[in-house]
Automatic annotation (TrEMBL):
Entry's family note: Belongs to the class-I aminoacyl-tRNA synthetase family. Glutamate--tRNA ligase type 1 subfamily.
Keywords, comma-separated and alphabetical: Aminoacyl-tRNA synthetase, ATP-binding, Cytoplasm, Ligase, Nucleotide-binding, Protein biosynthesis
Role summary: Catalyzes the attachment of glutamate to tRNA(Glu) in a two-step reaction: glutamate is first activated by ATP to form Glu-AMP and then transferred to the acceptor end of tRNA(Glu).
Name by which UniProt lists this protein: Glutamate--tRNA ligase
Gene this chain is encoded by: gltX
The enzyme's E.C. designation: 6.1.1.17
Length: 504
């Protein structure tokens, strides 16, 4: 039984085939002449990781910057490793990142008949051939190459042989006829001109003996049929670019403009791993980062606009160009991400930040408990506290922690540090200040500020000596938003009740 994701992707492709029977080449040519078309083409074998999210972002930005389109293709031809859960994770990650795409997502596997059609065309035109090599023969070729300290490559033994020479019952793989001489040139927008001698490109398999087309064949056909004008992807695909160019040339198709971007490394320069931050984007959501900040941080991993660090999304769209991408690998740095996220939080409207917090609460520990308590009164308190709390917060987790006093139930469970602040002398101060608060006819920042300062002066104490036990008694914590903000957010009745709880 197919999941909803698979059913949706499959039906979309069926609909396309039924409603657009005109030749694919005509469709492609009209699109390519009209506008820039990029694509994000993840394999659904896991979550949408940081490297994939940045690739999607670069494609999205380039399309937006040039009034073009970005399409999403799910490259699910690896049937053993592709999963429904991974498709759902990719779609959810794209949605959270705010990276929309044009049209419906396309399942590459659902286009397998189109891929086979191209393979048959290449065979008919003499640009591909059937290879009947056994696994033992291929292993021998690899061993010979290794012994001669050469990269493993196919020796072309079936290139000009007649299929009638094949062993009875043998199944053939289909290989493309690569040029034997000359060179293949990739004019890359990031890497520059990359020249690969054709002698280093053997006759790659374009369809396996089980009838399934290979990745390098399917990608070219899909990019052509979908009218892709610009391919922006990781530089680990640079070798594939040369092989795919051979397919374009064999089909007499235009080669899209290519830009192979450097990979992301950890702070130590090593390949990015989970300890560095190679997590799914949903993990960053759950760590309290804003999608706006993630877009800002990721665009700076390999791309620059002068010395600017902080960008709005609109600025990124206006400024983004492939020429701003560097060749060196970018280094992931959690501290920079956190600082940038804090900047975005401080620059976000309080109501928008409230919405972001509410969206992430279901994914956080105790978040559902907060949601269950949420009503109009609590929302009003949160909005009163927001401007003060967000100044100290770097993530939504910090924001949640800073607002926790709003949701705490009486009597408060004191944190260890807060409990230590409430000495006998401190509790005596609280008992003395309660009547002061009860006597206030106006409950405002100015009135509470003036009352506490006058109380401290009367007791010949510094303000902090009064504010600290007040903070501990009102929030149960040793750190919190400004104490006068806390008093106003809680209100007169709740504030006095919390103070009395600690004086029993």
């Amino acid at each position: 039984m197919l999941s909803k994701s698979w059913q949706w992707l499959h039906q979309m492709v069926v609909n396309m085939a039924n409603t657009h029977p005109i030749p694919q080449r005509q469709v492609t040519d009209s699109i390519m002449c009209a506008q820039v078309v990029t694509r994000f083409a993840p394999s659904p074998t896991g979550f949408l990781h940081i490297g994939g999210a940045r690739t999607a972002l670069f494609n999205w930005l380039y399309a937006k910057a040039n009034s073009g389109k970005m399409v999403l293709r799910i490259e699910d031809t690896d049937r053993e490793r592709s999963t429904d859960a991974a498709i759902d994770a990719i779609l959810a990650g794209m949605e959270w990142m705010g990276l929309d795409y044009d049209g419906e997502a396309v399942s590459q596997y659902s286009r397998v008949e189109r891929h086979r059609e191209i393979v048959e065309q290449l065979l008919a035109e003499g640009k591909a051939y059937r290879c009947y090599c056994t696994p033992e023969e291929l292993a021998e070729m690899r061993e010979t190459a290794r012994a001669n300290k050469l990269p493993p490559r196919y020796d072309g033994r079936w290139r000009d042989r007649d299929p009638s020479e094949a062993p009875a019952g043998a199944k053939a793989a289909i290989r493309i006829k690569a040029p034997l001489e000359g060179k293949t040139t990739i004019n890359d927008q990031v890497q520059g001109t990359v020249v690969i001698p054709n002698k280093d490109l053997d006759d790659m398999i374009i369809m396996r003996s089980d009838g399934n087309p290979t990745y390098n064949l399917a990608v070219v056909v899909d990019d052509h049929d979908m009218g892709i004008t610009h391919i922006v992807r990781g530089d680990d695909h640079l070798t594939n670019a040369a092989r795919q160019t051979l397919v374009y040339q064999a089909m007499d198709w235009d080669v899209p403009t290519m830009a192979h971007i450097p990979l992301i490394h950890g702070p130590d320069g090593a390949k990015l791993s989970k300890r560095h931050g190679a997590l799914g984007v949903e993990a960053y959501r759950d760590m309290g980062y804003l999608p706006e900040a993630m877009r800002n941080y990721l665009v700076r991993l390999g791309w620059s606009h002068g010395d600017d660090e902080f960008f709005s999304t609109q600025q990124m769209i206006e400024w983004f160009d492939l020429s701003g991408i560097g060749k060196a690998a970018a280094r992931f740095d959690f501290k920079k991400l956190e600082n940038l996220n804090g900047q975005h939080m401080r620059n976000t409207d309080d109501s928008q930040l409230y919405d972001a917090l509410i969206d992430v609460l279901p994914h956080l520990e105790d978040g559902k408990d907060m949601l269950n308590q949420l009503d109009d009164g609590k929302k009003k308190q949160i909005m009163l506290a927001m401007s003060g709390v967000k100044e100290r917060a770097k993530t939504l987790l910090d924001l949640k922690a800073g607002l926790a006093f709003v949701f705490d139930q009486r009597p408060l469970n004191l944190e260890e540090k807060a409990a230590k602040l409430l000495t006998d002398d401190a509790r005596a101060l609280l008992r003395d200040i309660i009547p002061v608060f009860e006597g206030l006819t106006e409950w405002s920042l100015d009135s509470t500020d003036a009352a506490v300062r006058a109380f401290a002066e009367e007791k010949e104490l510094k303000l902090g000596k009064v504010a600290q036990p007040l903070r501990a008694a009102l929030t149960g914590r040793s750190t919190s938003p400004g104490i006068f903000d806390v008093l106003i957010v809680l209100g007169k009745e709740e504030s006095i009740a919390r103070l009395k709880d600690q004086c029993v």
